[in-house]
Design brief:
Helix content of chain A: over 70%
Largest sheet of chain B: 2 strands, antiparallel
Number of domains of chain B: 2
Number of strands of chain A: 2
Oligomer: heterodimer
Strand order of the largest sheet of chain B: 1-2
Order of helices and strands of chain B: HHHHHEHHHHEHHHHH
Number of domains of chain A: 1
Mean pLDDT of chain A: 87
Distance between the termini of chain B: 23 Å
Distance between the termini of chain A: 41 Å
Low-confidence stretches of chain B: 302-309
Helix content of chain B: over 70%
Number of helices of chain A: 11
Strand content of chain A: under 5%
Shape of chain A: globular
Radius of gyration of chain B: 19 Å
Chain lengths: 288, 309
């Protein structure tokens, strides 16, 4: 039964990991750049919610929605004002620009909130569990998992059934042609960065509800998000879900067998995938 | 004229321990280590387009290599420090079969993951002192009074050595091949440049220089811990110093390091604000001065040294 327990916990943690990867996957897919500040977007979004809930006394749902909207606006604005100016065939300037942004955000968080552990209190929900005979699962991890799956489905629907989604997919396929058809590429990029930032913020908020965060938690989240999309395979958002679940399983199993290993086996899984199956679990041959 | 000035400046730098106080020397040593690290990072990144966010792994490897060579093989520190650079280069060579499957952005972050793996392995190793680190066994190799001057001279030698090496490489045939690859890989291949061999060479050289600079830095510290030696903060400084100074330019690391230390010392009383200022400078440099401070010279056309890539 311990096996079932471990697998369930791994899958539920994997849902959260997948959510970290989802926003980054969107950026990679549409803009062909890496956002090194993705982890800081997640942690910064969580701190926005913490600031609203703790310092302004807003109810939790309002704090979360406010933080998500603000994260969208910040992502949108940063892309429009800064990152769009260094986008081109070479992905390196955008990588360095977002690296700069990540350090600025991280240290602003340290100056504003200090380096202490912080978390978002969700009351009795944090410890509630469902008894399923021999195993029991936490209610909150289950909610996390369901929310993550729902967001994947929602993004899929948005990309395939709305006008904005069609524009985003077209930009991903052929940005020059999209420009010629009279669409404002810079604007589409800004929307994508905003959505990615909001998704990251939601993942960060759920992380802060599940445990605790510090302003320095961003780097680890970036690496997890990166591993999720490489393990899953680039080019499809469902690959990210698969990658997240695989990484979550590996982390939970490793934690059980070798408690002091931390993220070691997740990192090794990444190297193993690169060696054995460079196109990722989802399997589409991709350029990298 | 230029040569005489350079010779005079070098002589003054060598003589510094005879008239400077300890604080000045410590700072000077730190500046030289950062310059050496930035030159080493700039070689694959600025001239070769092979950008790594995991060079802190090589700093830690170099530092630990020095400590192990000194403790377990009893090597004199003056031998162990260059040897630490060589060990780091060889270990870098060993990871290239995996890493060189990645390109551009994936390579950059993949290097970071590798550095994390090394850090965790070191932290779990009792042989390397685990999470609490270890002291330098060879601290007695150099008389106490000469420790700081020796560390300073080693840092000076590493910084100047790295600069001369990069300068020499870029004037050679090899440098041309490297730049050709960065600018247009397909065209470079078509005229017979072997991409992976060229990239491998600069990557291993860069790792070796980084490892040696790490060894020098941790020689002066006399104690090494995994959290400090494998801190991503090293990469933050190296990358920003190089972007602000000028990627792919020999004078870039010098100018960037100057700005970094001015910001850090000037804002010493304001916590982490110097890092925010540094990040902002890097972002601004990307926007308005993509060639870094080193390109200001060409802009006003009074640069005599044609080191531009």
């Amino acid at each position: 039964m311990i096996v079932v327990d471990v697998i369930l916990n791994g899958l539920m943690l994997g849902g959260l990991y997948a959510l970290f990867g989802l926003g980054l996957s969107l950026i990679f897919g549409v803009m062909k750049i890496a956002n090194i500040a993705h982890g800081e977007f997640a942690i910064g979004g969580a701190f926005l919610a913490i600031a609203a809930a703790i310092f302004l006394g807003a109810p939790l749902w309002l704090a979360v929605i406010g933080a998500l909207i603000l994260s969208f606006v910040i992502g949108f604005g940063l892309q429009l004002v800064l990152v769009n100016r260094v986008m081109g065939d070479d992905p390196v300037p955008a990588l360095l620009m977002t690296f700069g942004l990540s350090i600025i955000i991280q240290n602003l968080l340290v100056e504003l909130f200090g380096a202490d552990n912080r978390s978002l209190d969700i009351g009795p929900l944090a410890t509630a569990g469902i008894d399923l005979g021999p195993v029991s699962i936490g209610v909150f991890p289950l909610i996390l998992f369901v929310v993550a799956i729902a967001l994947f489905a929602a993004l899929h629907w948005m990309l395939h059934h709305t006008k904005a989604g069609r524009n985003i997919r077209a930009t991903s396929d052929d940005p020059d042609m999209v420009g010629m058809m009279g669409m404002e590429r810079a604007h589409i990029f800004a929307i994508v960065m905003g959505v990615s930032a909001a998704l990251a913020a939601l993942a960060g908020i759920m992380l802060a509800m599940r445990g605790s965060i510090t302003p320095f938690s961003g780097a680890e989240r970036l690496l997890i998000a990166f591993e999720v999309i490489v393990i899953g395979g680039l080019g499809s958002i469902w690959g990210s879900l698969l990658g997240g679940l695989a990484l979550g399983l590996v982390h939970v199993i490793a934690l059980r067998l070798d408690p002091s290993s931390g993220p070691l086996y997740g990192h090794l899984l990444l190297l193993a995938i690169l060696l054995l199956r460079p196109e990722g679990l989802a399997g589409r041959k991709a350029q990298r | 004229m230029m040569r005489i000035l350079l010779a005079l400046a070098t002589a003054a730098l060598i003589a510094l321990p005879f008239f400077a106080d300890r604080g000045t020397m410590f700072l000077a040593m730190e500046i030289l280590v950062i310059i050496a690290l930035a030159q080493a990072w700039n070689l694959p990144a600025g001239y070769g387009g092979l950008l790594s966010l995991g060079h802190h792994g090589f700093i830690g490897l170099g530092g630990y290599a020095l400590y192990v060579l000194s403790r377990d093989l009893g090597l004199h520190v003056l031998v162990a420090i260059p040897a630490a650079g060589i060990v780091t280069g060889l270990l870098a060579l060993a990871i290239t079969p995996v890493l060189f499957r990645l390109r551009a952005v994936y390579f950059a972050v993949g290097m970071w993951v590798v550095a994390e793996i090394i850090r965790i392995l070191v932290m779990r190793s009792d042989w390397l002192g685990g999470a609490s680190g270890m002291p330098l066994a060879g601290a007695r190799d150099i008389p106490r009074a000469w420790m700081l001057p020796t560390a300073y001279w080693l840092a000076l030698a590493t910084a100047l050595g790295a600069t001369v090496l990069v300068w020499g490489l870029m004037r050679s045939d090899f440098g041309l091949r490297l730049k050709a690859l960065r600018d247009d890989e397909i065209a470079a291949r078509s005229i017979g440049v072997a991409p992976n061999r060229v990239r491998l060479t600069v990557f291993v050289l860069s790792a070796a220089m980084t490892g040696m600079a790490g060894a020098v830095s941790y020689f002066s510290a006399l104690f090494i811990t995994p959290l400090g030696a494998f801190d991503i903060g090293w990469v933050v400084i190296i990358v920003f110093v190089t972007i602000i100074g000028g990627m792919g330019r020999l004078s870039g690391p010098f100018l960037g390091a100057a700005l970094y230390f001015i910001l850090r010392e000037g804002l010493a009383d304001f916590g982490n604000w110097y890092l925010i200022a540094l990040g902002t400078s890097a972002v601004l440099a990307m926007l308005v001065l993509p060639g870094g401070l080193a390109s200001l010279g060409d802009r006003f056309n009074f640069s005599k040294t044609k080191e531009q890539s």
